[in-house]
Amino acid sequence: MVNPISAASAPEKGTSLWRDGWVRLRKNHLALFGLAVMVFFCVIALLTPWIAPYGYEQQNLQLGASPPSAAHWLGTDIFGRDMLTRIMYGSRVSLLVGFVATGVALVIGVLWGTVAGYAGGRVDAVMMRLVDILYALPFMIFIVLLMVVFGRNILLLFLAIGAVEWLTMARIVRGQVQNLRHQEFIEAAFSMGLSRWIIIRRHLIPNTLGPVIVYTTLTIPNVMLLEAFLSFLGLGIQPPQSSWGLLISHGVESMEEYPWLLIFPGLALSITLFALNFLGDGLRDALDPKASKD
Amino acid sequence: MMLLNVDNLNVHFHTRAGVMKAVDGVSFSVDHGEILAIVGESGSGKSVTCYSLLNLIPQPPGKIESGIALFEGRDLLSMQPDTLRRIRGNEIGIIFQDPMTSLNPYLTVGEQLIEPLLYHRNLNRQQALKRAVTMLDEVGIADPETRIHNYPHEFSGGMRQRVMIAMAMIAEPKLLICDEPTTALDVTIQAQILSLIKALQKRRIIAVIFISHDLAVVASLADRVAVMKEGRIVETGPVDDIFQKPRSGYTRTLLASIPSGSKPHPSQPSDQPLLLIDRLTTCFADNSGGWLSRQKADKKAVNEVSLTIQRGEILGLVGESGSGKSTLGRSILQLVPVTSGTVIFDGTDLVGLRQKRMTPLRRRMQMIFQDPYASLNPRMTVFDCLAEPLLYHGLATRKTVTAQVLALMDDVGLARAAIRKYPHEFSGGQRQRIAIGRAIATKPELIIADEPVSALDVTIQAQILVLILALVEKHNLTMLFISHDLSVVRYIADRIAVMHHGELVEIAETETLFANPGHDYSRKLLSAIPALSTNPTLSTRPPTKLV
Known about the structure:
The structure holds two protein chains of two kinds.
Chain A: H1 4-8, H2 17-25, H3 29-51, H4 83-119, H5 121-136, H6 139-150, H7 154-181, H8 184-191, H9 196-204, H10 209-232, H11 244-253, H12 260-286
Helix pairs in contact in A: 2-12, 3-4, 3-12, 4-5, 4-7, 4-10, 4-11, 5-7, 6-7, 7-10, 8-9, 10-11, 10-12, 11-12
Chain B: E1 4-15, E2 18-30, E3 35-39, H1 46-53, E4 62-71, E5 74-75, H2 81-87, E6 92-95, H3 109-121, H4 125-138, H5 144-147, H6 157-169, E7 175-179, H7 187-204, E8 207-212, H8 215-219, E9 224-229, E10 232-238, H9 239-244, H10 249-257, E11 273-286, E12 297-310, E13 314-318, H11 325-332, E14 340-345, E15 348-349, H12 355-362, E16 365-368, H13 382-392, H14 401-411, H15 428-440, E17 446-450, H16 458-475, E18 478-483, H17 486-492, E19 495-500, E20 503-509, H18 510-515, H19 520-527, H20 536-539
Parallel strand pairs in B: 3-8, 3-9, 6-7, 7-8, 13-18, 13-19, 16-17, 17-18
Antiparallel strand pairs in B: 1-2, 1-4, 4-5, 9-10, 11-12, 11-14, 14-15, 19-20
């Protein structure tokens, strides 16, 4: 829809929340570090087919599971497959699942929660009861049903995880919006004659960003592990393809004999989690004009 | 010997922004049976001073840097925490501003009242409860034997403050610290609480430190007054001296800022009505039963109110909290659903108007809210905030909007350089200027101002009132000015309407109402205003010079 307001935030001197936020984020070294790590991981994931030292299904049964060495920096698994290669290929799946599924959850959850919280009354009650019903539906049955109906498909995996994760997001956002709804600046916007959609977009959603960003950074690693769980059950990615979650769950089985099979994929996930948390905290502060007073 | 002797107290707050000298070399003393008032605006350090004595400030960031506070010869500041705890609540009682939040909602008032007795006096429960009943009776709570088993939410605001006073007094302290004890209360309740504090003080012969921002309240109560500004005491002396012959310039400014007398330039309202309200009723449905419950008890917040506002006039609307005055304002603007009646704005009935036809009308009527901290979106800069209505209603193009916003900022007295700042970077008064700018941005004809100066300090309040009067004149505005403060309304309004329990009880010309109130309730309201000891040279001076 065309509206003059969104254009208003970009006149010559340009002051939008996002631009101000970026200026502030640049001063936060920890957040920048997190951002750099994430960019690095994403670039590696994109380039993997060209830069990976071995093929992901290339086995060396004579070698078997070997600890890190000059030829295999992160060791090999029981089939003699190079762990570095497998982690690199795994990152493609894990990062994709993490970002896409979380993105799906974010969009649905924020919109659903904002509309429910702002509309209030019956609309809110109906919308939130629906959320409750979906909550109560056992996750496993839901996924299995989807798989049965639509077959095994990586896109379906994104959708299924996203469709479950948005529920909590919707609840968080709705709580926030309910608080905000009675604030005078929302009333002021309404008395100015602004349409509901503009009030939601310009006045409500920006003010829910803090908790939303924090919850998002927590959701991404969560989603990655969920993918591992589904793959473990045979519903997600299947070997010889790999994902971090899958590697970790295989690593757990043999962690006493071959600890590197668990340590390195675990490390990759942990580093991602830390980087996302730093970035998330930095974003939250950067997008809150009140928080960064430096 | 003085009861309390504070010498050269320094309290600093160490924040990221630097060291803030909240209390900067303050010395004062309180004698047995004396009422000392400490007055000052917000941030002047009056509360921090008293809280430091009892070690009630958050440390860090606060730190008591130096000073001596001798209470009956013992230094409170160098005392062991255990010893101080025996003094706090026992020899020194304290009453806080907000009786809503300073009582524990999960305990009956009886349980909370007997706490100091069990702790400090080693009485058993039976004896303590008996004392508590006597105390409740003394602070004027009817039927104390039953009421003692009630929870705080079962008391009204004024009653709750009485309970707080009972709590502070029950251990028979020698010194009572009252921190703005009547600020959250209605004017008639305030009068009752003040006379209660005074009566108790006389009967028990205790010393009182009374912290307040309200000079008029202090004038009727205190023996001596200390005026604080920016962490220092600028003047101290007997109450009459402070009000009759103030020595410091700041005290004079404070006194001159109190709105007094009538409007400087009465406006010339035309005889065309802009707004015609006829039997307007607004009910709030009580939905506490939930979705499935059928029973709904409607509470009539506004009950059959009829009034007319002429073009170019400022109509004051006064009443106590819960009288429905804010709801009336919101009903006129259709911000709350109206139950019945008509609101005719310039020939169009607004009640039940479709949104499509209402939106263009909204440009012509705007609202100014009470709390400048809540009425501005914290994530929008001044520019965004003022540009939004202009662009939305098509009153500016992207090319002209910056110039128009700058002109608006000039109009309401904001520095042009502040255009890219966020609301939290401004003081309360400046924020209210932004809110006023937003309201007049669309060149409206009608403005409903809901307590626009109640959250502001007295000197800032005077500036905003002068600004509002100037803008009304410049833009030929019509205004409904809602306030609980009669002296403010007298200063700004041409006519005054009085509301009580949702009904309009009286409407009259401002000076007529003050000279000769027609309704009992108006009379009660007028007599409850704390009177400043009248000094003709002070009371007639308009606060114009502050702008």
